[in-house]
Design a protein that fits this description.
The complex is a heterodimer. Chain A has two domains: 36 residues; 127 residues, Immunoglobulin-like, CATH 2.60.40. In chain A, strand 8 and strand 9 form a beta hairpin. Chain A is elongated, with a radius of gyration of 38 Å. The N and C termini of chain A lie far apart (103 Å). By secondary structure, chain A is α+β, with helices and mostly antiparallel strands. In chain A, strands 4, 5, 6, 8 and 9 form a five-stranded antiparallel sheet that branches. In chain A, strands 1-2-3-7 form a four-stranded antiparallel sheet, with no helix packed on it. Chain B has two domains: 30 residues; 155 residues, Sandwich (Immunoglobulin-like). Chain B is 14% helix and 38% strand. Chain B is elongated. Classes of the chains: A alpha+beta, B mainly beta. Chains A and B meet through helix 2 and strand 5 of A and loops of B.
């Protein structure tokens, strides 16, 4: 049994009606899940189950993509060629507040005269002297790695397999901001062991926290 | 009913794709380490390293190298195997990880570099060969058939397939010396191993 529609107790004159010539207000918007009125265009309604399926599918795909790209994210991106810092007209390059220019890269041969040391390179090797001028405002790094790079792409790291305490040479290349207490001048000389048949073409300066940036200075 | 069959077919397809991709990954693609078997006295590639075993000797105890006053010999419940080897890299200065060099017995048992030995893997450079001793503690019954395995386990790009080196040591189980002095590492002249 249906109840009869409740009558508005107000007199008909008090019921708000739009003045003549003005359109009546639009009926309320269709609510999801309710039946559209026959005179309105039919709207697509997404059931909750279908939405959950879609969300689960997206989450699954994202998870799969994250796991399957582990190698790409971890190793491949790091192995991509990096771009060295630009070298200005004076031959200096600046990276993260560290400005470096190459003063000298010279082959000392197989019997270098090193002050305070009688060290000689093993047979078939030469010692190279690399001098870098450095101005740094970087307080986050300490030492940078310096390597001679030859025409075959081989890197020969300074201060390895050589005499560590030769007079006039640093045993580590300091690239942080220098303090007055530091006993280091603006130019630092380093020793590098290089096979006699290698032809070094550039000096590469790297530091792990500056990756992927680095500085590469051509040997003139 | 038809929808149920579609779901079953998709599930079967997912399983088949998974099995196929795993098989292809394990057996068909040209990466993943493969063994390069060499011999003592030969250069063997384990990219980016090249390794060369000079000799190996079993001993009951070892003595640390490079001390002004040598410490007492270090004994073992098993047998020491001291491998004299050198290696260099192809590209830059590197040092092998602590698990890169192991001795593998014929039955598959593996013996890492002993923590009780001061000798550890060392730095080597591009075509800069460095020689030294590594000491392993092994079970006495494995001396016959021991093999040095050098697997850098580096995920870097290089010639495919990546290689690890395995070099039989040709040890005589009856030739176990009482004490063996370890030698210090040495950067070698060009051409020396």
């Amino acid at each position: 049994m249906t109840e009869p529609a409740a009558r508005d107790p107000r007199p008909e004159a008090e019921i708000a009606t739009p003045p003549r010539g003005v359109r009546a207000p639009e009926p309320p918007a269709q609510v999801w899940g309710s039946q559209p009125r026959p005179d309105q265009p039919r709207r697509t309604v997404l059931p909750l189950a279908r939405v959950l399926w879609a969300v689960a599918l997206v989450i699954g795909l994202l998870g799969t993509a994250w796991i399957s790209t582990d190698y790409f994210r971890t190793y491949w991106l790091q192995s991509q060629p990096r771009e060295p810092a630009a070298v200005d007209a004076n031959g200096a390059a600046t990276l993260a507040g560290i400005t470096i220019s190459l003063v000298e890269a010279r082959d000392l041969g197989d019997s270098p005269s090193l002050g305070g040391s009688e060290w000689r390179p093993p047979a078939g090797f030469h010692a190279w002297r690399v001098v870098l001028r450095t101005e740094s405002t970087n307080d986050d790094v300490s030492a940078c790695e310096v390597a001679l790079v030859d025409d075959r792409g081989r890197e020969f790291l300074a201060n390895h397999f050589v005499e560590s305490f030769a007079d006039g040479y640093e045993w580590s290349y300091t690239c942080r901001r220098l303090s007055p207490e530091d006993d280091i001048g603006p130019e630092q000389a380093l020793l590098v062991l290089v096979p006699a048949d290698a032809e070094p073409r550039s000096v590469r300066i790297t530091e792990a926290t500056l990756d992927p940036g680095y500085i590469e200075l051509e040997i003139g | 009913m038809r929808r149920r069959w579609v779901i079953i077919a998709l599930a079967v397809l997912a399983v088949v794709v998974g099995i196929t991709s795993n098989l292809a990954d394990a057996r068909l693609l040209p990466y993943g380490p493969v063994a390069a078997t060499g011999a003592m006295g030969e250069d063997v590639s384990a990219f980016p390293y090249t390794v060369h075993v000079n000799h190996a000797q079993a001993a009951a105890s070892i003595v640390e190298a490079g001390r002004f006053e040598p410490p007492p010999p270090t004994t073992t419940d098993g047998v020491w195997v001291v491998v004299n080897l050198s290696y260099a890299t192809e590209d830059e200065v590197r040092i092998p990880g602590s698990s890169a060099l192991v001795l593998r017995a014929e039955d598959g048992r593996q013996f890492p570099v002993s923590n009780r030995s001061p000798a550890r893997p060392w730095l080597a450079g591009a075509d800069i060969w460095v020689r030294g001793d590594l000491a392993f503690e092994v079970a006495p019954d494995t001396l016959d058939g021991l093999m040095l395995v050098f697997d850098p386990e580096l995920k870097i790009y290089g010639p495919m397939p990546m290689q690890y080196a395995q070099i039989p040591l040709d040890l005589d189980p009856d030739d176990v010396v009482e004490v063996l002095d370890l030698t210090e590492t040495e950067t070698l002249p060009v051409g020396k191993r």
